[in-house]
Amino acid sequence: MTEKLELLEEHRVFDGTQRKYRHHSETLHCAMTFSLFLPNVEKFPNPSLIWWLSGLTCTDDNFTHKAGAQKKAAELGLALVMPDTSPRGETVADDEAWDLGQGAGFYVNATQQPWNANYQMYDYIVTELTTIVRETLGLTGSESIMGHSMGGHGALVIGLRNPERFHAISAFSPIVNPSDVPWGMKAFDAYLGADKQAWASWDASKLLASHDGKPVPILLDQGTADNFLHVQLQPENLIAPEGYPLKIRMQDGYDHSYYFIASFIDEHLEFHKTYL
User: Fold this and answer.
1) CA gap 36, 48 in Å, rounded
2) Is 256 a catalytic residue?
């Protein structure tokens, strides 16, 4: 597998290394890029790993360039992996709208044509990219997961569906109830079909409400000045069983942007470090 992984960029940053890779995905049937931050490997030879999932229209570059996470990650000895948000390429199905198709994979396994040919983002992250990270890059430490907006939805769903693997989940402005908000309903109808029963296993609010396995601690930050708060995000719909370790913080005056993420990313990394 090593020969299939191409290193595109490498930068020294905060006593660590920021890299960008490209590979051909057997799951998505296209070329994919992902980014990786590694702390000083002499100090942290087997670092814990946090997966970051980005939101609509983003690539693996947005968090890497805007969040300012590398300094705290280097201090805490945390590796960060940032996948892209969808399959890409001329042969991959797309839509003219920005909230469907390329850049809007929603971290599900599509079952409907034409999307099912490429849009298997859940399997890509949980299986294929995981194998690359573990076997090719040698990162076998404990794991957690976090994300923003559509990626916050992805982090919650992937974390809740894999409670034995991920030690903690955090999210900024996540789509917590995609079955009942416009962004999610549009994507799920296209990718998963009209039967809403098929949507439940991809909806964090439903997964958490019925969760009876190992509890995964969750931290959710939501800005009160977020333009998408009341129509698309609705954090009040994420309701945990009694005693579940869920913390939702409403942050006064913050919006949906990476300025919000940069303001609290250090606290999120420290939250993850507690459980890793």
Assistant:
1) 13
2) yes
Q: Round the CA-based radius of gyration of the chain to a whole number and report it.
A: 17
Catalytic residue among 153, 256, 268, 272: 256
User: What is the torsional sign of CA 47, 130, 275, 155?
Assistant: positive
What single letter denotes the amino acid at residue 30? C
Q: Is-contact 164 64, C-beta < 8 A?
A: no
Between CA 257 and CA 265, with CA 259 as vertex, the angle to 5 degrees is 105
Q: Count how many residues are written for the chain.
A: 276
Q: Which of 60, 84, 203, 226 is catalytic?
A: 226
Of 48, 149, 170, 173, which is the active-site residue?
149
In the chain, helix, strand, coil percent, each to 5? 35, 25, 40
Q: What is the pLDDT of residues 134-156, one digit of tens each?
A: 999 999 999 999 999 999 999 99
| Nearest partner of 139 among 53, 84, 79, judged by Cα | 79
Is 153 annotated as catalytic?
no
272 tagged catalytic: no
pTM: 0.96
Q: Which of 84, 83, 77 is nearest to 141 (CA)?
A: 77
Q: How far apart are CA 141 and CA 162, in angstroms?
A: 16
